[in-house]
Structures
1.
Amino acid sequence: MTGICEGRVVAVTGAGRGLGRAHALAFAAEGARVVVNDLGVGLDGTPAADSPAAHVVEEIRARGGEAVAHGGDIATTEGAASLIRTALETYGSLDTLVNNAGFLRDRMLVNLDEEEWDAVVRVHLKGHFLPLKHAAAHWRAEAKAGRVPAARIVNTSSGAGLLGAVGQGNYSAAKAGVVALTLVAAAELARYGVQVNAIAPAARTRMTEQTFAASMAPPQAGFDAMAPENVSPLVVWLGSAESAGVTGRVFETEGGRITVMDGWRRGPSADRGARRTPQEAGETARKLLGEAGEPLPVYGAS
Ligand SMILES: NC(=O)c1ccc[n+]([C@@H]2O[C@H](COP(=O)([O-])OP(=O)(O)OC[C@H]3O[C@@H](n4cnc5c(N)ncnc54)[C@H](O)[C@@H]3O)[C@@H](O)[C@H]2O)c1
């Protein structure tokens, strides 16, 4: 297969269904050899007797592409390390890592228990960090051996991580962490030839098809805006050598729309070169807030 990823080796986590599956198929269609990771868990992360990664590998091969399945848990050192090893042992290289795997345990904060907090923060945040770390160690070794790669990492945040979402305190915190991790990784890894960006997607998958049933339903005719396949082209481009020079950026992507997220930047500010009393600090804060724009609303806030 020919395309903008011809000759590249791409690992996609959580690629057995939903967005990850669409990314894996899209990378293969652009000529990449793909490591399709999926642990095959339920929507809440509980074990399920399923091997969705193997099905996606079959789909890619049926279309004439090359792929191999990996069934490890990417939030463990062994799962993350063996994902990278699978790429190197099967195809001899790794060019792109797409961190995508995850699950939800939604609850209002007052009802959210410690286990639900830990499980969601673990799968998204540690599940991004560990594959990133093991891929980066490989690319650093390559760069030090004089083979500076055109390596790419695409991380998966969420609107919940950028603006917050009611009922998703654990998920929003983890996905905000993914953005900060992306910025740090882009800064640290540039010297090794690695670019790191993040997307905040929206699409119809098992994660969204019930909660947002009305807005996710396919139309009777015309453009199916919420199909996960609409998100993948940007991910493929970010994961290709074509995206040279783009790093440390966050893109919202859904349907036919791509938006560059213009992240935290300093707004109105006042420095008087001396300590304030609490009352003076309050007066200054209120004055500055009067000059600042209104924040975008938290998803689901009434
Ligand atoms: N669907 C949306 O609208 C939307 C919006 C914002 C962000 N996201 C993010 O996009 C990513 C993909 O979500 P999706 O909607 O396709 O959901 P999905 O449930 O269809 O797919 C996620 C996949 O990850 C796998 N997985 C879970 N834990 C794993 C682990 N520890 N190791 C390996 N695989 C694991 C699951 O088995 C599943 O196949 C997630 O990070 C999600 O938070 C999705």
Note: The chain has a mean pLDDT of 97.
2.
Amino acid sequence: MGKWGVITLLALAVVLAAGAFAFVRLSQIEPQVLLAPSEVKTEIVGTSVEGRAITAYSFGQGETVLLFVGGIHGGYEWNSTLLAYQFIDYLKANPKVIPPNLTIAVIPSANPDGLHVVTGAEGRFAAADIPAQTTTVPGRFNANNVDLNRNFDCKWKPESMWRGEVVSAGSAAFSEPEARAIRYFVWNHDPSAVVFWHSQSNAVYASECEEGILPSTRAVMNAYATASGYPAVDSFDAYEITGDAEGWLASIHIPAITVELKTHEDVEWERNLAGVTALFNLYKK
Ligand SMILES: [Zn+2]
């Protein structure tokens, strides 16, 4: 054997040893680590009127999808977006809380243009970023001055109400890109239940369109309300609402609830963690 033959054999031995070492190391790693359940999948599901991305973050690999949406009323209800971001952080840090049959999806900022009006920030923000004594009402609407929670296809009308005032509901159901972003996610992922976080009516509302409250919606409402301590309310009757997202979901037989935080400033974390945990338990196999 010549000099080059020895070198080739030595090189081969080194490669084989390295391969064997890597095999032993990998086989010592637990399978769930290799599957990386804590890994977050991000998907841009739409773009706002002003071009800001609307992103869904998903955790887990189960067939049953639960969707949580914050911030459809933008900067007027900025704490609902902070709650959704805290939920994302919690799922990243605690992947084992997700039952194996579930996928948890979170759209933290469904109205990023309205949020930007109040926070002045792009992407994540902190409560401290909100200027003191700012009027947050303009941040409720999207950049076309549409109340997005009046732009969905359930009893849609061009104008709707918010408290005592007339608000624009868009030029047609789903005229607004932010509403279409939620529809895109729903059409593509077929969630088994949807929770919308709002503030500040301190209640959990069921939803309906033309067929009354779905039994599954009532189960979701009661589970969340009992665990969180927000009172369960069958229907919002302070004033007539048309074109709300939850009603549209009811019309396509997907249970949806509205969770109204008690304040406009706090994320009310412990209560909402109890609420989402109750839904995990309701849907786990
Ligand atoms: Zn709201």
Note: The chain has a mean pLDDT of 90.
